[in-house]
Write a structure and sequence with these properties.
Rossmann fold
């Protein structure tokens, strides 16, 4: 199973981002001592990609409609945060359920299977996965989704459908396809929405929300960040380390979906600072993922030598500089955030590396590429991200 079959259950990356608001003044001990310095003291960029320029250094207020009158059948302690207010909420019991919420998930990969299985088994939702991977559709349709997590191995029954349908209307549509597939499925996803339905993108990268709104879902799209560690073991079979899901408060109905996630035994948070969280994750993604893909090293091994650790630091700081130009402060030094994330995933290969290994197209265009294009628009130089973007595209054969 190659690099996807890492031993054990890796620590979820949310451990490095959960405290992204905490001020940071120094790197953790895992980074080589030569890099224990403030951002203003960074050495020049390597000459092969330097273009000059400076271094950069639930109580829920809304009534819950019948579609969401679905609860766990046993009281399970869960935690839900709403705009920074944390509360422990017991999962209530209901015996008068008009119908389960109808969820359609676009995607059949690791994250789609992980989220769909949780919603179906513990959230008691009616879940359908749709995608273009025939082996996954066949496996899931015949025996359900198999989830291997620290607490044991379990199976969840869900529906499956090819992208051509047929579909019924959905209360929530979740996008978990690769970002380069968003434009192709956006109209199909928007057509499933009822007047009160919600469309959630939990995808990596930038630009997904804008594509979905342009396809007919304006005002009904919520951006989310899922800090779960999910790895495909086989079609329809995933290794999962549960983590936190943070949703933006941009669309009506997001609170109800957050509650459903809590009932599905996932931590859920609705935050008005979703852009800040998204860009903090981008600082990690745009530094760790392409460097692992290009060097063949695990995330932690990137920190063991001056190169590629130096490149990792500068790539993350460029992302932070672009975010700051947009009025978004990711909190502290984005390079420190990237180092902490790499340490927390030390023995694993990130998705971009696994994509290249199996000859699949990566999401580098929506990650490093999107940062480069946004930097050009704002007049912020991003030479390291541009170098990584182009090198990964070359490795893909583009």
């Amino acid at each position: 199973m190659g690099r996807a079959a890492a031993t054990g259950h890796p620590q979820p990356i949310h451990s490095a981002l959960a405290d992204f608001l905490r001020p940071r003044t120094a790197f953790p001990q895992g980074c080589p001592p030569v890099f224990h310095r403030p951002s203003t003291a960074d050495p020049p960029l390597p000459t092969d990609f330097s273009t000059g320029g400076p271094p950069f250094s639930t109580a829920f207020p809304q009534p819950i409609p019948p579609a969401f009158h679905t609860f766990s059948t046993s009281p399970v302690p869960v935690v839900l945060a709403r705009r920074g207010a944390h509360a422990t909420v017991p999962s209530p019991v209901s015996h008068s359920i008009p119908r389960p919420p109808r969820i359609v998930i676009f995607g059949t990969g690791a994250m789609a299977c992980a989220v769909g299985a949780r919603l179906a088994r513990f959230g008691r939702a009616s879940v359908t996965l749709t995608g273009t991977w025939p082996a996954a559709l066949e496996a899931i349709g015949s025996r359900g989704i198999v989830v291997d997590e620290p607490g044991g191995i379990w199976t969840a029954k869900v529906g499956v459908s090819p992208l051509s349908g047929p579909f019924g209307p959905a209360d929530v549509v979740v996008l978990l396809v690769k970002s380069h597939r968003t434009a192709a499925v956006a109209r199909a996803a928007a057509r499933l929405l009822l007047p009160e339905s919600l469309l959630v993108t939990l995808q990596d990268g930038l630009g997904n929300r804008e594509l979905l709104e342009a396809a007919g879902a304006e005002g009904r799209v919520a951006t989310g960040v899922a800090f779960l560690t999910a790895t495909t073991l086989a079609p329809g079979e995933v290794s999962l380390v549960p983590g936190r899901v943070i949703l933006g408060d941009q669309a009506p109905g997001v609170d109800r979906f957050a509650e459903l996630l809590v009932q599905s035994r996932l931590e859920a948070e609705v935050s008005p600072e979703i852009d800040r969280i998204l860009w903090a994750k981008m600082a990690v993604t745009c530094s760790v993922q392409p460097l692992s893909a290009l060097t063949g090293r695990t995330s932690g091994a990137l920190l063991e030598t001056p190169e590629p650790c130096e490149t990792l630091l500068k790539a993350a700081r460029e992302v932070g500089a672009v975010a700051l130009a947009k009025g978004i402060d990711v909190g502290g030094d984005p390079a420190t955030l990237a180092v902490e994330a790499a340490e927390s995933m030390a023995t694993t290969f990130p998705p971009m590396t696994r994509d290249l290994d199996r000859g699949a197209m990566t999401e580098v265009d929506a990650q490093n590429g999107a940062v480069v294009l946004e930097g050009r628009r704002l007049g912020i130089p991003t030479p390291v991200n541009e170098y990584l973007w182009q090198r990964v595209r070359e490795k893909e054969g583009r």
